[in-house]
Each structure stands twice: as C-alpha cells, then as structure tokens.
Amino acid sequence: MSEPIIKFTNVSKTYKLYKNDKHRLIGIFLKNYKHTKKQAINNVSFSVERGESVALFGKNGAGKSTILKMITGVCFPTTGEVAVHGIVSALLELTSGFDLESSGRANIYLKGQILGLKDEQIKSLEQGIIDFADIGEYINQPVRTYSSGMKARLGFSICVNINPEIFIIDEALSVGDTAFKNKCLKKVNEIISKDDVTLLFVTHSPAMAREFCTRGIVLSQGKSVFDGNIDEAIKYYESTI
C-alpha cells in the first residue's frame, strides 16, 4: 500500500502572542521575553490518501487555517510531524509570494518555483496561465500597477493551472466579476474531477461539502473530534453549532 499523500502525526502548534510589534521583535532575540501562548492545534493525527476528497469543518478558531498553513509550508508544527508528498495548490491567499516590482510574467515563474516546479515545467504552463488570467498587456507590467482584482486573477490562474496533486479550497474564495467567477468554478470542477487529485475543502456549508467530498474531519478548539464518512461528519458538526 502506498504512503498517504498527507500525514499528521501527533501534531501540536503553539503561537507566542506579544503585546505589540516591539515586544515581538525583542522576543526574537530573548526567548523568554514576556508573552502569552495560544495553542492552535493540540495533538492532531490523521492521514489522507491520494485521490481522497476531505472536508474540514469547524467554528472560527477551531484550527482549520493552521492545519492548512502547515500543509502548504507557511508554518511548521511546534511538536509532531507533518508529511506532504505532492504539489500543493491552495486557493487561500492568492497573491502571497508576489514580487510587486516584477512583472506578472516574472511572478508566474517566482510563484511556480515557490510551489516546487522547475522552470521548464513553468514554461510549458506559462501561456495557459496568461490566457486564463486574461489581464492583457498588464502581464508584462510590474504587479504594483495591478488592481487587487487583477492580482487575484493572476494568483488564481497560477494556482489552478499548475496541475496540482493536492488542491486546497476555501469556500470564501471570490475572484473578479461574475463571468470570471463562473470560469473559475468550471476550472475547479475540472481539477477535482480527476481521480488522482486530493482535495481538502474548508467549509461551513454541509451542502457544498456533500457535493464535493466523501469524508469529513471536524475540528474543535484545536483538536480533531470526528473523522469519518461525510454524512456522519455533517451530522456531528451540525449537532455542535
């Protein structure tokens, strides 16, 4: 049996909270400088097999975002182990990793490299990304000249056109006008219909979860409190809200 594409083993994540930025800066140099602690994740273990579609449920502050950040490599566990085997595309912070002084075209390569692709792979995807983003001649202009909508269109286009093995979606995603949103939804459905793509779907909507996922994990106060069939997960989640 092949190894899971995502595996969390006894993972905990504790954040240090400081009164202000000055205290945070001092805390970098003085390990025990005054701060409070917030445990975002508490001894969570689960694994996801290649091709599974899993919904993450939980109230705000339950730990969903922290789990996604660890899967995407934005942050790391305080204790425990996170193993991820595959190219991750996350429809979360679409414009993260952009260099505002570089052109949109240059940022395609920059973000592609951040996502683990080689230049020759990015080159083969470049024109498709540009065509999907549909921002015209701005593709050769510095990203600092873009509107927020244009940045999001380019970020979305990169995320959905890199042939991800692990696809993470936040239902709150909203990009551009109605026509572009419909184009995005069509592309997302195209990606998740592939048998070898693993989907993690963060949602508060049982109906959407049931449409896209076969399994659900319910989080509460940093702990995994239910993991099972999507219908049973929805029933459990609804009983807690």
Write up what this structure looks like.
- With 241 residues, the protein is an alpha/beta fold.
- It has a domain at 6-86 and 199-238: Rossmann fold (3-Layer(aba) Sandwich), CATH 3.40.50.
- It is 37% helix and 26% strand.
- It is built from eight helices and nine strands.
- It has helices at residues 21-29, 64-72, 104-114, 119-133, 148-160, 178-192, 206-212, 230-238, and strands at residues 6-17, 36-48, 53-57, 79-84, 88-91, 166-170, 198-202, 215-220, 223-229.
- Strands 5-6-7-3-8-9 form a six-stranded mixed beta sheet, with helices on both faces. Strands 2-1-4 form a three-stranded antiparallel beta sheet.
- Helix 3 (104-114) packs across helix 4 and helix 4 (119-133) packs across helix 5 (148-160).
- It is globular.
- The two termini are 37 Å apart.
Provide tags for this entry:
241 residues; alpha/beta; Rossmann fold; 6-stranded mixed beta sheet; 8 helices; 37% helix; globular
CATH topology of the domain at 6-86 and 199-238: Rossmann fold
Question: What is the quaternary state of this protein?
Answer: single chain
Fourth-tier CATH superfamily name of the domain at 6-86 and 199-238: P-loop containing nucleotide triphosphate hydrolases
Tell me the strand percentage band: 25-35%
The overall pLDDT, averaged over residues, is: 88
Helical segment count: 8
Task: Please identify, by name, the CATH architecture of the domain at 6-86 and 199-238.
Answer: 3-Layer(aba) Sandwich
* Assigned CATH class of the domain at 6-86 and 199-238: Alpha Beta
**Percent range of helical residues:** 25-40%
Tell the overall outline. Answer: globular
Profile the largest sheet: 6 strands, mixed
The overall strand count is 9
The chain-level structural class is alpha/beta
N-to-C SSE string, H for helix and E for strand: EHEEHEEHHHEHEHEEH
Biggest sheet strand line-up? 5-6-7-3-8-9
- Pick out the low-confidence regions: none
* Straight-line distance between termini: 37 Å
Radius of gyration: 19 Å
